[in-house]
Amino acid sequence: MNGFLDGVRVVELASESASFAGKLMADFGAEVILVEPPGGHNTRAYEPFLDDFAGPERSLWFWHYNTSKASVVLDLETVDGRTRLLELIATADVVLEAETPGQLTSLGIDQNNMRAEYPRLVWTAVTPFGSSGPRSLEPASDITLMASGGIAWNCGYDDHSLPPVAGSGHQAFHTGSLYAVLATLTALVHRDVSGRGQFIDVNINAAVNITTEAGSYEWLVAEATVQRQTCRHAAVRPSTASLATAADGRIVHTGVPPRAKREFEALLGWLRDLDLADDYQETFFLEMGIERGGVHLSELGSNPEAGAIFGAGREALRFVAERLPARDFFTGGQARGLSVGILNAPEDVMADPHFAARGFHSEVAHDELGRSFVYPGLPFQGTTAGGSIRRAPLLDSYDDR
């Protein structure tokens, strides 16, 4: 199957913050040429390493974030290096860069000049605070961007004596990279219609901020501050706890309690199917929820009856969860249209038969090692086009491909 982006050439200036954007485009068929400095990009030295032995070709971090790309080493401090980069850009559809604003211009490589010379070129810059403005030169890392963008404030536990939690896994960089891909693909479609490329200026801080759900707009609209809650949405007013321990000891999430009449009917029907309706002491509240046509979130702070019905729905889900194995709770709730789930460790996710059925696991050959490894696969599929995953490039191997 051909990739969605077959025929698209991307010149990527190696970075930590935009590498995921290049990976996605490469996995979906684009020819992504990774430009690395002499000795390789510093992320080749990121732990962990294969078999715990360090080396530029053994970083599992680099493997993951640079799948399907090619590598060329250029010293941009030299005339030859800059000339070679300009030659590559001349053949490119997209330039993906995450340099400090002004850094490339100081080397004589200016996106305005390049786009004037190659009007179909799409140039995508991914920087912490955008390529202009009072913070454009401010240094940042993934964790400081999560804090500055507001997402860390939203994440943590009911116990507010504990600090906010910044999620691991480069979530700020991922968020910026996803917006970079979406904007770049949109610009390519626009180019196909108009004949002209664009400059895409991705501000990671802004991208993170618009993922804060209620965090930003509660303040902007009502000048109210949301508070962190364990495994549920940050909110101005505390909501009921959502986690439960299933009968097999695994932790499950009771999701969003019933609000619509149909959801109360489904939950009550589930209790009856399990012969638990008489054992649950607040079944009458579920019946009230059906009789009144459900509850609305706007009622919960002012209507005690609605609050009691809503709380009884949450507790009924917990009641069911404690009496079923986690998988049965999950599938039973989902089958009834109730948004419940299991808290999976990464190894549990990869072992899920659903992923296997969809071919998510990708066997990637590393010929230089004589071995293959299982990688996480493509995030979506197409009926006539898709993509495939190849190993991250060996250093400066582009001319050999």
Notes on the protein architecture:
It contains 16 helices and eleven strands. The chain has a six-stranded parallel β-sheet with strand order 3-2-1-4-5-6, with helices on both faces. A three-stranded antiparallel β-sheet has the order 7-8-9, covered by helices on one side. Helix 1 packs across helix 8, helix 11 packs antiparallel against helix 12 and helix 12 crosses helix 13. The model has no long low-confidence stretch (mean pLDDT 94).
Q: Got a strand count? A: 11
Class of secondary structure makeup = alpha/beta
Strand order of the largest sheet: 3-2-1-4-5-6
**What's the N-to-C terminus distance?**
20 Å
**Helix count, per DSSP?**
16
What are its keywords?
6-stranded parallel sheet; 12% strand; 11 strands; 401 residues; 37% helix; alpha/beta
Short structural description:
The chain is of the alpha/beta class and 401 residues long.
